[in-house]
Structures are given as C-alpha cells and as structure tokens.
Amino acid sequence: MNHNPIFLALDVPHLDAAEDLARKVCDHIGGLKLGLEFFCAHGHHGVHEIAKIGLPIFLDLKLHDIPNTVAAAMQAIHVLEPTIVTVHASGGRAMMEDAKAAAGEHTKVVGVTVLTSFDDSDLKPIGISDSPHDQALRLAELAHASGLDGIVCSGHEVAAVHKQWKDGFFVVPGLRLPKGKSGDQKRIVSPREARDAGASVLVIGRPIRNAKDPVAAARAIEATL
Ligand code: C5P
Questions:
Q1: Sorting pLDDT into bands at 50, 70 and 90, what band is 56?
Q2: Does any domain span residue 182?
Q3: Alpha-carbon distance 81 to 48, whole Å?
C-alpha cells in the first residue's frame, strides 16, 4: 500500500464531481474511500470509473446481515478488487468469519467497532451501558478472534487496541485539524495524533472535500504527518 495513510472519503452524490475531486488531490493522498452514498448511487460502474485514477480503493459498505448474506455480498464485490472493505463487528463472529473467507486474497476486511459519531449518550438507547472505549475494545477483540485484518475505531481507542493487536490494521475516521468543524463527529482527534497512536489508515472527508481549496487542505494535512 502507498505510504501516504490518507484515504479521502468521496462522499459526493455525483460521479463527475467525485472523479474531479479525486483527480485534483490524488498526489496528496494514499487512497480513495467510497461509501454507501457513492455505492448506492453509482454501483460497480462508479467504482470502476474511480479505480481508473490508480489509487487503492476502500469500499466502506459497513456490511451487517446474516453470515450467508454478507458472504454473498463479499463475493459480489470481489471483481472490484477493493484494498479494504468494512463489515460491522457487531454482526458477530460467524458473520465476520464468513465475510473474511469470502473476500479476495488481497482485500483487507476490517470491522467497524463504535461509529465516531457516537458518544456515551448514543450507546445507552441501543442497550449498551459500556463506554464507547470499552465497547470498541470488546468488538476489536471479537474481530481479531474472527480472523479479520483489523478494525475501524476512533483515535481515542486506537492506542489501546494497538497494544493488544500488534499487527492489526487500524482505520481511523473522525479526524480534524485543531479549529476544524466537527460536524456530526463526536470522538475526534487530529490526523497526527491518530497516526502517532498507531492508525494504519486516516479517513478524511469533509476537511478536504468542503475546503475552499481541497488541494491546499490535503497538502496541509499531509504536511502535519
Ligand atoms: O467527513 P468526515 O471526515 O467526517 O468523513 C468520515 C468518513 O468516515 C465518512 O465517510 C464516514 O462514513 C466514515 N466513517 C466514520 N466513522 C466510522 C466509520 C466510517 O465516520 N466509524
């Protein structure tokens, strides 16, 4: 994988705009993350178009269903040769094992632990009395035991998970430069802090995408690493 850990979240509804943005900043990032918004709108065709830019593709589909369905979905995206695919770790051990078994040899399957848009007050209503930190660590352990390559967690948990899982692959979203707008993200750190704590991939969307000058924003973030 490219040494630049920044994966730009291309959360834009129009394919042309996504391609345009990705081509502009491609020298200052290490990969492109295509999420639900993009995949629901443009499907395989859209992924093929973005893959032409030549950067690794992270398909952030956050799959979560019965094991058989998730394995079938993994097989269906095999042909796209994604570098990284996400499943929800709360889908359980059998689902994660089957997801990994169905994935391509060169695809890293990572488990989403606790969304970075969650804090304590969001976990209680869904029946989880633990803190986001404890719940993320619990799901990280389960993802590890299920044979996944790594997890998605916030920069607040990555150091603790890294201690337990030395060769894990850790994807960290919820990143903002000091004074950056947090939006819906609640458990945020800076890209540099996440890197120093052991993140393998830094997912960055709005701080680059919504900047007046996305190239300058990507360069500024790259320079902090
Ligand atoms: O715009 P921003 O930098 O907040 O984008 C973060 C990206 O990371 C979004 O595409 C979001 O779907 C994704 N993500 C997240 N929290 C997770 C997993 C993925 O914010 N736990």
A1: very high
A2: yes
A3: 10
